[in-house]
Request: fold
Amino acid sequence: MTTGADDGGAEVFGLGALGAGIGPMPASWDLEADVVIIGAGATGLPAAIRAADAGASVIVVEANYDVGGHAIVSGGNVPLGGGTSAQKKYGIEDSPDTVFADLTDWSIVQPNGWPDYRYNDRAVIRAFADHCAAAYEFLVANGVKFKEIPPDNAGAHNTGNSAPRENHAFWTDGAGLGSPSGRGGAGLVRALEASARLKASGFSCIIG
Ligand SMILES: Cc1cc2nc3c(=O)[nH]c(=O)nc-3n(C[C@H](O)[C@H](O)[C@H](O)COP(=O)(O)OP(=O)(O)OC[C@H]3O[C@@H](n4cnc5c(N)ncnc54)[C@H](O)[C@@H]3O)c2cc1C
Reply:
C-alpha cells in the first residue's frame, strides 16, 4: 500500500471518526488492497470487518467528511431476530422460518403485520431470515451495545409480528462531532468503525 507520501502505513485522510486522521488530502495517492469498499455506512463498515476477519487487506472509500452515512443519524433500531441470544435471554421464541413467514406471507393479519410483505423478494428474505440471528451476534461481537431490555417492535413499522425483534443501539454523548444527531445510530456506527479500524490493518478512509 502506498500513498503520495509513501509511508506504507494505514492512512486516514480528512476528519474521519474518533477524531483521528485530521489532515489534508494528498495531491496524489496510489493504494492497493484485496478488498475496496465504497461507502462507510451501515453496509460498508460490516463489510470491511468481514473482509478483515477473512484475512483480506481493506480500503474503505468514503465520500463524506466522516463515516456513518444515513446510519449515523438513524434511530439505531436494529430489527434482527430468528433466535438471537437477546431473544433467548428473555425467553422469546423465534426461528429463521418464522422470520421468513412473517416477511413474505400476505395472509398474516396479526398486529404489526402489513400486507406489503407479499411484495418482498422471497430469495432475499430467505437469505435475511437464515442469517438474521448470526448478524445480531456479529454486531455484538464487534462492540455494538444494545439497551438491556427485551427485544420489542418499537421504532419499527413492519419488521415482524409474531416475535419481538427490535434491538436498540444507543448513544449517550449527545449531538456533536461524534454524532450529528445524537441518536442511537451513532452508537451502532462508532462501535463498528472502531472494530473495523482495529481489525483491518489496511483500513483507510479516504474522504474525497
Ligand atoms: C433519519 C433516519 C433514521 C433511520 N432509522 C433507522 C432505524 O432506526 N433502523 C433501521 O434499521 N434503519 C433506519 N434508517 C435507515 C438506515 O439508516 C439505512 O437503511 C442504512 O443506513 C442504509 O445503509 P447503507 O450502507 O446502504 O447506506 P448508508 O448508511 O447511508 O451509507 C452509505 C455511505 O456511502 C457513502 N457514499 C455514497 N456514495 C459514495 C461514493 N460514490 N463514494 C464514496 N462513498 C459514497 C455515503 O456518504 C455513506 O457514508 C434510518 C434512516 C434515516 C435517514
